Amino acid sequence: MELSMATDYASDVGNAEPSLRRIAEAGFEHIQWIHHWRHDFIYTEPEIQHIARLLRDLNLSLYDIHAPVGAEKNWFSTTEYQRLAGVEIVKNRVAMCQTLGGSVVVTHVPEVVPENREHWGQLRKSLDELESFCTTRGVRIAIENRPYDEFDGIAELFSEYQPQYVGLCYDSGHGNIGGEGLAHLETFNDRLVSLHLHDNDGTADRHQPLFTGTVDWRRLAGIISASPYHEFLTFETDMKFAQEQDELPFLKGAYRDGLRLLEMI
Fold this sequence. Notes:
Layout lengths: L1 E5 L10 H9 L4 E4 L11 H13 L3 E6 L13 H20 L4 E4 L9 H19 L4 E5 L7 H9 L5 E6 H5 L4 H7 L4 E5 L20 H10 L5 E4 L11 H18 L1
Parallel strand pairs: 1-2, 1-8, 2-3, 3-4, 4-5, 5-6, 6-7
Helix pairs in contact: 1-9, 3-4
């Protein structure tokens, strides 16, 4: 396994080049692209090719991309044109991922509550429409767990879609809120295809550096070790919640924490 850094550690909008350069300078060789994950942003071919050149120049590789669930382009929207627009934005990230050499696109799904029943129906419609587009490009969809997530909806999706198409992005911070995330990960560790690693105190999604909160890192390391996943440990830590407020020392600290976790695994 190797270490990877999320691109949004300081900001998820604007020109990512300075952040990519600092990520490389800190020792990372891999990234997860998370810029614009909260926005209805479509990457055009000139932008994607510019990112490809940056990655080559900095000796960085991309494994996965975080797709947005936008304000108006939402793949589980109950408004049909917005759902279709959401499918298009996921396709945009899938094509971008393939071009940049990656193989996983991370996505959010709605909360499992009665009032979201129609949203889940729309999500399945979108997954059905996207399956051929993704599989022919060798890109899997990774469903990210939520805070207080009992994995009910995720488990159902895993029973309905093949692992070559739909897998799990385990978010350690989300899993620590509600306290049962690691138990669910143990159950579904065979579907693990991506990681978002960060810490918190179990009450809020603060994206703290590793080993600064209450995540049981030794247990998580054991579950990862026992899983068939042997790709990248991606750190989704955020400078806003770190003691170190200078970018390069913050990133070097994240790299050191990653080496410590890697030894535990």
